[in-house]
Amino acid sequence: MKKIIVPIILGLSAATAVLLGMWFYYNKSIREIEEQSMASSTVYDKHYAMISGEDDSLLWRSIYNSAREYASGENAYLEWVGADSVTDYLAEDCIRIGIASKVDGIILQPDGSSTMTALINSAAEQGIPVVTVLNDDSESSRVSFVGLNSYQMGEIYGQQILKLLGEGETSIQVLTHSSTEDINTNLMYSKMNSVVEQGKKKGQTVNISTYSIDNSMSFDAEEVIRDIFVNSETLPDILICLDSVSTECACQAIIDYNEVGNVDIIGYYTSSSILDAIEKDLMPVTIVIDTEQIGQLSINALNEYHSLGYVSNYFNAELNIITKSNVNAFARGQETEVQN
Questions:
Q1: b/e per residue 224-249 (b: at least 16 CB within 10 A)
Q2: Are 95 and 25 in contact (CB under 8 A)?
Q3: Do domains 2-142+291-317 and 150-289 have the same CATH topology?
């Protein structure tokens, strides 16, 4: 009997701790909103919550800053739930906090899990619209998706590959994440293949493969990329990264393993180290999503839903291409943005 009672008590204690943590977080958030409102003499019409699984991501911080500024101009307060918190909340916990806080809308990057889908549906049942960003969950009750057109993304990546192809056979490896592999990723991959097959010249052959990074495992992108570079027999001629972390790791690996000039990296997003790598010819190109547009479209989707009771199912964000020819101009633009 004791063997049964002890696990039950431990389970109840853990559940109580989580609920207490959520309750304290909720009260802390309400106090912060009230204090900010009193300090600025602003009473917000709406309280929105943004939730992502990448709190330290430069991309998400840029999206949040853009969305928060735009929301403020629309008389709405945007809170990044879980970010900069002492407690490491899972995205699922953050959704529960948002629902318990009765926010007016949630901006979310889903992870493709059934639990996440169920939580999105739970929010919808309680009248809280959810807008998915970058990763979609079309099987859920989300009201809209703000992200990339998979065909457009595949087209751009395919065009960049064609510029890097040489004579003979070229091996290409695409780094993907198992937690976010969905129909959109498959469509992008299919379109990229199609562009390359149709655009390659006579005498050029291409072998494209994928390498999935499993975020649930103990190793991360850095270790996966290290394994790729250690095995010289399977080292690709072109390595395609679909996130900023993998891009930065690949840039470092190309130096550490003395493969500069042997492997071309097509990166994703930007940071000071990525821009520096392009400027120093360590990588030829990176694809950049318009984070300002993503932030604004997310807020617009929630506002439109509250105003009309419905909203477009999909909003497409733009992509920009950074090469050595425009990297300096882009870097100056980022410095100006930081100073402002």
A1: bbbebbeeeeebbbbbbbbbbbbbbb
A2: no
A3: yes
Superfamily of domain 150-289: Response regulator (3.40.50.2300)
Show me where the domains of the chain are located.
2-142+291-317, 150-289
CA distances to 125, 132, 214, 296, 316 from 69, in Å? 29, 19, 34, 9, 20
* 50 burial type by CB count under 10 A (0-12 exposed, 13-18 middle, 19+ buried): buried
Instruction: Convert the pLDDT of each residue in 18-77 to its tens digit.
Output: 555 555 555 555 555 555 544 455 678 999 999 987 655 778 889 999 999 999 999 999
Average pLDDT over residues 168-191: 80
| pTM to 2 decimal places | 0.77
The pLDDT of residue 59 is: 85
Give the side-chain half-sphere CA count within 13 A for 20. 6
Does domain 2-142+291-317 bear CATH number 3.40.50.2300? yes
Q: Tell me the two tokens of residue 48.
A: 């929105």
Distance between CA atoms of residues 210 and 236, nearest Å: 11
Give me the mean pLDDT over the 256-272 stretch: 92
Residue whose C-alpha is closest to residue 153's, from 10, 266, 28, 37:
266
